[in-house]
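[Meeting: bench + compute handoff]

Bench side (C.D.) handed over the final construct sequence. Compute side (W.E.) agreed to return the predicted structure before the next meeting so the bench team could plan truncations. Sequence as handed over:
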Amino acid sequence: MLAAFHETSHQLDFLRPMNSLLAEFERGSIADRAHETAAIETHLGALHAAWDRVFPAFPACPWRRRTLAWEYHRGCRDAYLRRLVVAHVPMLAGDNRLIVNPATVLGRHARSLARALPAWQVVGTDIDPLAGRLHRLVTIWQGHPPPNYRFERENVFEPDRARRPTVVTFFGACGSVTDGCLDYAIAAQAPLLVCRSCCHDNIGGNTDIVRRPRPINWFFACKNWGFARIKKKRNGFYFADRYCRAAYPRSTAARAIIDSDTIIAVAQNAPDSDICRHIVDLDRCLYLRENGYDVMYREELFFAHRRADVAP
């Protein structure tokens, strides 16, 4: 299965669809659900078709894009991600059976992986253990965490770089936290990275959004009000100086077609626009490719395997 992944990934072009979606943004063709659906099918159709050739059927969603119900449906994509991890880790070479879930928050995904993969050690990391403790309290019926799971308190922007996981996985990481997790996987030379991005409006330290009269926009406005207070305290939860505005776009390839001010403007429109979210994520695909990974992408989900770990 990994051989088919690498063969298909080599054929993918991330820069062209990013350029096409950027043209849609610059024309103002965003935030209209019908137009965005058609634009994504047109410009990302090849990436979606490639994903479907390699991986199991993508979870269908009956809800309209950019609604609160659509956002809630991310839980189905998280379950799908867990299945991808469980299916692929037996194919990985080596004796280092370690999975790290940075930005683990509640820790439920990491514990689920530990139960599904008893021969592997699973580490969940986050800066604050309180959320995980509260989740364990309200799900006490699940019993004690599996013996192959442990939590480590850690700032995702200052991870333990001596740790060498075979798999890095996360299930939604707000804004630049996603980029911190990607950089951790790259620095640790993790062979496999399987993850979901989240809150694209918060890249580069941004907490501003373009206001629109929709419930989803109001939800993100409230969230960003809280994030702005967190950022002001500089407590390391979601923001770091090295992931400032000037750090975006992340990839060298994307810097040829988009500058920092434009991608922050894209981020500010992201709560209501899948086009904008995909622009941010396609830049991340290019960044992973430039750092030694073959990658496939669909609907905020990334599957990446390091080229150096491909069996000869």
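W.E. noted at the follow-up: The mean pLDDT is 93. C.D. will use this when planning the next construct.
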